[in-house]
Design a protein that fits this description.
This protein has 264 residues and is of the alpha/beta class. It is built from nine helices and twelve strands. The chain has a six-stranded mixed sheet with strand order 1-6-12-11-7-8, sandwiched between helices. The protein has a two-stranded antiparallel sheet with strand order 2-5. A two-stranded antiparallel ribbon has the order 3-4. Residues 187-251 form the Phosphoribosyltransferase domain.
């Protein structure tokens, strides 16, 4: 009798799912019918996060400049400038194709349940940064959404992502009151690099006093201006930023130049 029930349970679930799909069809963000997330997109989320900070112009700091070729420690350094990223950034992949469709469906397409699928995919990136920083469970600070965006979507999607990540055990969610002091709309790429963010509230002050180690969370990184603004605000408040984890990056480095935290 128990074996019969065990065999009937998956069948009953599928009958219920198929019946419900007549009212609300199951459709993956990539367009495939029959599942909220198709096997191909599920496999895409299982990919190892890649380092993308070298592709973010706003995250680069000038560390050296040479007007002529120099030799240092037996290494010939050509004339030019050297840049060092402000913080490491890990992304699941490039903001294109199925990953772009998934992000847009999650952010603006009403498929807020996808956050629960994104969280386990981002957890390895959070753990990588935590291990490199020597901490077990860092605080997860989401980049805040504008009030108008929260009202349109029905929730703060990055804050919910931080809470879903916390449920995986990768860290502890710490949504902060933060507002940009410069808007991004209508600004050129050079102006976007100077974005400033102001932190407010007792949670930020307390985390600063405790010198909390944090990981920034966001959906998509382009120039890196928002991550730079969050990094500067958190650092000025007294926190230690271990890095950032995002779902997608507008650009990703070539596979042979991606690097890892152990080698940089």
């Amino acid at each position: 009798m128990d074996e019969t029930r065990t065999g009937l349970l998956p069948l009953a679930r599928e009958i219920v799912a198929q019946t419900c799909s007549l009212v609300a069809p199951r459709r993956c963000p990539c367009g495939q019918e029959g599942a909220w997330l198709c096997p191909r997109c599920t496999a895409m989320l299982a990919a190892r996060p890649v380092r993308v900070e070298t592709c973010c112009d706003a995250l680069q700091e000038l560390t050296a400049a040479r007007i002529r070729q120099e030799s240092a420690g037996g290494v010939v350094l050509p004339a030019g400038v050297d840049h060092t990223p402000v913080l490491p950034v890990l992304a699941l992949g490039e903001y294109t194709g199925p990953l772009q469709h998934l992000v847009l469906a999650w952010k603006n397409g009403g498929m807020l349940h996808l956050g629960a699928r994104l969280a386990p995919a981002l957890a390895p990136g959070v753990r990588t940064l935590a291990v490199a920083g020597g901490v077990r469970r860092p605080l997860l600070v989401p980049v805040p959404s504008r009030r108008s965006a929260r009202l349109r979507r029905g929730e703060d999607h990055t804050a919910e992502l931080a809470r879903a990540l916390a449920r995986t055990g990768a860290g502890r969610a710490l949504p902060l009151r933060a507002v940009p002091t410069t808007a991004q709309e209508g600004r050129g790429s050079r102006q976007r690099r100077t974005r400033r963010i102001h932190l407010a509230g007792s949670a930020a002050r307390r985390a600063g006093r405790e010198r909390a180690q944090v990981v920034i969370l966001d959906d998509v990184v382009t120039t890196g201006a928002t991550l730079r603004g969050m990094h500067d605000a958190l650092t000025q408040a007294g926190m230690q930023v271990l890095g950032a984890v995002v779902v997608a990056s507008a650009r990703v480095p070539a596979p042979d130049t991606a690097g890892n935290l152990d080698s940089q």
